[in-house]
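Hey,
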Amino acid sequence: MRVLTVAAMRRVDAAAVDGGIPGLRLMEAAGAAVAARAAALLPDGGRAVVLCGPGNNGGDGFVAARLLTERGYAVDLCLLGDRAALTGDAALAADAWTGPVHPATAAALPSGDLVIDALFGAGLSRDLDGVARALIEAVNAGGRPVLAVDVPSGVDGDTGAVRGVAIRAVETVTFVAFKPGHLLQPGRSLCGRRHLADIGAGEAALEVGCAAAEPPLHRNGPDFWARVFPRLTGESHKYTRGHALVLSGPATKTGAARLAARGALRVGAGLVTLASPTAALAENAAQLTAIMLRPCETADDLDDLLTDERLNVVLAGPGLGTGEPTRERVAVAAAAGRSLVLDADALTSFSGQAPLLAAHIADGESRAVLTPHEGEFARLFGGTDATAEGADKVSRTRAAAALSGAVVVLKGSDTVIASPDGRAAINDHGTPYLGTAGSGDVLGGLIAGLLAQGMPPFEAAAAAVWLHGDAGLRHGPGLIAEDLPELMPAVLGGLFDAAL
């Protein structure tokens, strides 16, 4: 589950070689993994066009080309640059190739059933131009399926950003560990289906790479948070499973809070109460049964409610309204030392006032989770290091978490979860069908429900994001937010069936 930067992966390679594994053996294993996937994509007797670059990525391509030829496939190998300029293991791999080497140019691109992109790996540090750019544009325009080696050429391995132009692959084979660029957009989409190959670097070398990538970055999934996921015992009952308090907006703006409340209940909170303005009580009561209702008009009313110590989580924001009244409610909840989930209007109410929100969270020693989308993130953290120009999504989210003293969930198709201590996770377990009204409100409720059961904030946020994504994947087309809480029994059942 660890995600390694390009620099950390270089440390893995170096440690493997220092440990007695020849670099050429690693390259042979990488090329074999690429050849295996290529064979799965090629028709019987098909033709592959292998595009090799001037570095080790190109060396992987030479190995794959040789192995495909040995399997009986036709191969056209094209090299970007001068063969005599190849060095090290790449030169040795090229020496073992006995077929012709064609120049890799847009004008002379051979036809074939599959293109293998071994031009540039994850360590690309400049924008592509000239011959390389023209070649990639020709490959993309050609419409033939592309299998990328390590990352699609042109994708920054650390950020997922496009360096001028990038290959659009149907599949990508990478090695040892995923890099941020495999999980962050747009790199994630450009990779197509991703395959992680073990090339024999060894656990000791991997540990060296992990030590070089601190604070840790994870690919979100059950292996990451399973050890602290809530489990019921024979002694469990509703009062041991926590009590979440969700703040409702005024009449006609109550749906978002109800979605959040139902999410909290479905994910396992023992009790959930919706704190509602009096004028909205009947509206909420007409659609709620297991979720309790309490009147709450002002921040003082909320303060009175929180004298009940059993209310251990407060979720504020969905449909609540923006401005001073919402800021006051957040301040009261934070001062009470409750776990907090802040979304939507609660975040917008602090636009440009991230230090003030951080002060509220710190004063009450609250455990807080903030769940902004990109627009809310920009409004809340504008003018801070979290919105520095050119910063990647992981860096921005980490900066926001450090500034706010809260776990930050920066939502999107590549949601990033970051803790104030620098730990972070990237979620790629989801679907575009989650992009529907109210989906984020349910996510807030899932986080609140897990916090109510005692899960630590970082792991609770990461788990909720994954569960939310899994529900979306299970439903697929036609998904609306109301479906998400009702999918939780199947999602949770799948986890426990997998011996969570």
